[in-house]
TrEMBL record:
One of its GO terms (cellular component) is cytoplasm. Its EC number is 2.6.1.52. The modification N6-(pyridoxal phosphate)lysine is found at residue 198. This is Phosphoserine aminotransferase. Pfam families: Aminotran_5 (PF00266).
Length: 363
């Protein structure tokens, strides 16, 4: 019977894409070899990357004054790259913290630029036991910043920010775990980045969408392969790119387009998340600690009220074909990651399992 994989990342990819890729491992594009075995500068591969960018631009409605870069190093490489690319000549930046990943981004920024170059505002408060985001009025914050950084979806904590950040400085956003899960207005951002291994493709790759004028900011000395301008000037091929990851990402973009694009996905993702949160709210057996307006639609964190049953829950879920539900080691509990590739049927099956488990163990 079908298995549903709720891993936070690397996460499940669309089944149709994986089946196509499996066939193409033997013969891609009639070349008699796989895409992994050809030159990144071949006309066939360039056709692939051109199409990938075109489809991504359509899917996200990316304005013409933005560059799309395919880079190495996953999400964390961009924690470094935004600092080295934008904070030359003693530049300063403001970081908003909302959980584990935004905190990691700050740590990295301070490591490179120095503690004094980075200011920080914690934007999560606890109201009646629930975590909620309170965005500060950035127009009333004093400071000369090159950018303000935030993480739109905290993968570990299950906290998502749906509001647009209004800011006098360019907004740099970590969209690793929420990109293409709902519609956004790209023109509100100076730079968007995302590690690929949730809604895009295999790990290692990161996608950067950067507004043209951001490339004029003074940078620190850095590795050429991590320089946004050099990457742009070389069509993301200053060195050999991760070609297989790029190919799979291109296939995921085509798949997403074929199922109706980001708008259709937004509807499905909100149905999936609502179903699961409804189950958690209705059964006193489970709880979630995030205020409704900031509950992540991608990473649904929840706890068993009696955490002595955690191991048994995970074992029985696994036996029922529901895998990788264990929460992140830092926060414990459970986490169901339900990215674009997770079908509604997977969430329905999880909900049925949770109801049955609660029935069996409620006193
Ligand atoms: N940012 C967010 C929101 C993430 O969820 C992750 C990884 O899960 C990262 C950054 C780091 O990505 P990577 O492991 O590709 O460096």
């Amino acid at each position: 019977s079908a298995k549903y994989n709720f891993c936070a990342g690397p996460a499940m990819l669309p089944q149709a894409v994986m089946q196509k890729a499996q066939k193409e491992l033997i013969d891609w594009n009639g070349l008699g070899v796989s895409v992994m075995e050809i030159s990144h500068r071949s006309k066939e591969f360039i056709a692939l990357t051109t199409q990938a960018e075109k489809t991504l631009r359509e899917l996200m409605n990316i304005p013409a004054n933005y560059h799309v870069l395919f880079m190495h190093g996953g999400g964390r490489a961009q924690f470094t790259n935004v600092v080295t690319n934008f904070l030359g000549d003693n530049g300063r930046a403001l970081y908003l913290t909302s959980g584990q990943w935004s905190s990691s981004a700050i740590k990295e920024a301070k490591r490179i630029a120095g503690e004094d170059s980075i200011d920080e505002i914690n934007i999560v408060e606890t109201v009646e036991g629930l975590h909620q985001v309170k965005l500060p009025d950035l127009h009333s914050v004093d400071g000369d910043y090159r950018y303000v950084h935030y993480c739109a979806n905290e993968t570990v904590d299950g906290i998502e920010i749906f509001d647009t950040i209004e800011s006098p400085w360019p907004v740099v956003a970590d969209l690793s775990s929420t990109i293409m899960s709902h519609e956004i207005d790209v023109s509100k951002f100076g730079l968007i980045y995302a590690g690929a291994q949730k809604n895009i493709g295999p790990s290692g790759l990161s996608i950067v969408i950067v507004r043209d004028d951001m490339l004029n900011l003074p940078s620190l000395v850095q590795s050429s392969i991590m320089d946004y301008t050099i990457t742009k000037d070389n069509d993301s091929m200053f060195n050999t790119p991760p070609t297989f990851a790029w190919y799979l990402a291109a296939e995921v973009f085509e798949w997403l387009k074929s199922v109706g694009g980001v708008g259709a996905m937004e509807k499905l993702n909100s149905d999936k998340a609502n179903l699961l949160y409804q189950c958690i709210d209705e059964l006193p057996f489970y709880k979630n600690g995030v205020a409704v307006q900031n509950r992540s639609r991608m990473n649904v964190t929840f706890q068993l009220v009696d955490n002595n049953l955690d191991e048994q829950f995970l074992a029985e879920a696994q036996a029922a074909g529901l895998v990788a539900l264990k929460g992140h080691r830092i926060v414990g509990g459970m986490r169901a990651s339900i990215y674009n590739a997770m079908p509604l049927a997977g969430v329905q099956k999880l909900v049925e399992f949770m109801q049955a488990f609660a029935n069996k163990h409620s006193k």
